Amino acid sequence: MLVELLVENFAVADRVRVRFHAGLNVLSGETGSGKSLIVDSLGLLFGGRASAEAVRSGAERARIAGIFEAPRTAGFLELLEQAGLEIEEGELLIEREVLASGKSRAFVGSRPVAAGFLKELQPYLGDIHGQHDQQRLFSGAEQRAMLDEYSGHGALLARVAELWERLRAAESELRQLEAREQALLRQRDLWIYQKREIEAGGLKPGEDAQLEQELKVLANVVKLRELAEGALGALEERTVGQALKRVQELRRIDESLDGVVESLRGAEALLDDATRDLSRYVDRLEADPGRLAAVENRLAEIDKLRRKYGHSVAEILAFYDQVCADLDLAEGAGERREELVRTVAALREEYRAAAGELTVSRRAAAVRLDGQVESELKDLNMARSRFVIAVAEDEWGPEGADAVRFLISTNLGEEPKPLEKVASGGELSRLALALKVTLAASGGRTMVFDEVDAGIGGSAAEQVGKKLKRLARNNQLLCVTHLAQIAAFGDHHYSVAKKESKGRTHSVVTELSGAERVEEVARMIGGQRLTEEAMKYAGQLIEMGAETSL
């Protein structure tokens, strides 16, 4: 429910603050007084498109703020939780700023959010029903959504949507696999050859690097022996041992040379180790023409594979792994395709059954809704109208396999036809109201009716007022109207007027009570000249509206 609305520098309003109430809130005023101000402001809070033209002339920005009594539905609370937002004392503040440049900013609970997030919140907070929204009644998708809302088969609808997505995914994978399968099979023989050729090579990880190092040694064994023997001779001629003996004699006199003694001992041990290792290395250095030839031949074999499959054994083995994976895919494609064919067939049957169940539910609900809407239309002076919801077979989709169309006949003896071909503006307004009354049983939302009285008058207007009063039992209604017969049913009445101050025009919204309300209803009846008869009739209408039992 909308608790309070603040409008600043928006259209002709410099600053308007209004507190609303539960029940039917009526807004009236002369043509051009700015009654659409409230509707347009709420449209922005519900995520509507912002325009620089809405900013009051001379102002840098327009600001709309609404305080809503927050619903406690699971979906609404989950949306807030996902956005990191919290409800404070049961209320939620929603704000929208529109800059003179045309850019806009949105806030929920004083935290910035995307305007699209306001659209996600809107279904939980309320909706606006105006002449533009009546055109939505012509949409088959909207009509189907209304029937589904009335039917209450949300779980079944979700099941159908889930099956549709799974079916689409399986069919897509099957198409892709079938398109790739031929290419995979064409490549299969090549992959088998490549796999066998690499396997025949008997490669081992790092083998090429090891062989290349061994080849360097074998090819340079003479030079290596000369260098190693020279180094060994130099080590054997070392004088470290003699230096150690002399320092040890010095140490007997001067103990401060302990460190030097230890260093020389360490050096002597290291040189001993190096000498032994180098000696063993010299012993191994023998020319081996046979091994040299074997290494060269093995590297030649590896080079053949490297030219085809990679610059190193590591790359060749990686290529081999990929070939094996491709072969597995090619050899398993047939099995996977058969599995997918079975899956698609099973999902089609599941979808067909669930969609069929949805069709049965829709057709049963359509008969009930037909009767209820016709009953509401009778109360709105459309007693001869016939309302029919046609549920016909259509293409499969996430919402099932049905096309839903609302048909109406407004004259006796005529066959029902699509709304856009039959209904006038006034008839469409009344049909929309009849649907709203029928579908709004759950209640708890803010519903805004703009120009719901378009094209009607007399007793039909009185019936519209009664319907609005009934709808306001469970929902907060904000209704912009020109008709006294409707305004008289309001639980709360607001006057919207334009006033001039300091050379500027301002919109003013005033909540009326007592004599003020009687005067406003009288003005709606007879214009600016308030006659005694108009005042008396206005009082009677208000009294009747208050006492009417619905």
Question: How would you characterize the overall build of this protein?
Answer:
There is one protein chain. With 550 residues, this protein is of the alpha/beta class. The chain has two domains: 1-130 and 451-550, P-loop containing nucleotide triphosphate hydrolases (Rossmann fold, 3-Layer(aba) Sandwich); 173-336, no CATH class. 58% of the residues lie in helices and 19% in strands. The protein has 18 helices and 15 strands. The protein has helices at 36-45, 74-82, 115-125, 131-134, 140-151, 154-201, 207-219, 221-236, 240-253, 258-284, 289-309, 313-379, 419-422, 425-439, 458-471, 484-487, 515-526, 532-547, and strands spanning 2-10, 13-19, 24-28, 61-69, 91-99, 104-108, 111-113, 126-129, 386-397, 400-409, 417-418, 446-450, 476-480, 492-501, 504-512. The strands form three sheets. Strands 2-1-4-5-6-7 form a six-stranded antiparallel β-sheet, with helices on one face. The longest helix is centred in the middle third of the chain and has 67 residues, at 313-379. The mean pLDDT is 84.
Based on the model shown, name its key terms.
550 residues, Rossmann fold, six-stranded antiparallel β-sheet, 18 helices, six-stranded mixed β-sheet, 2 domains, elongated, alpha/beta
CATH topology value of the largest domain: Rossmann fold
Strand order of the largest sheet: 2-1-4-5-6-7
Question: What's the CATH H-level superfamily name of the largest domain?
Answer: P-loop containing nucleotide triphosphate hydrolases
CATH architecture of the largest domain: 3-Layer(aba) Sandwich
Number of helices: 18
The major sheet is characterized as:
6 strands, antiparallel
Percentage of residues assigned to helices: 55-70%
What share of the residues does DSSP label as strand, in percent? 15-25%
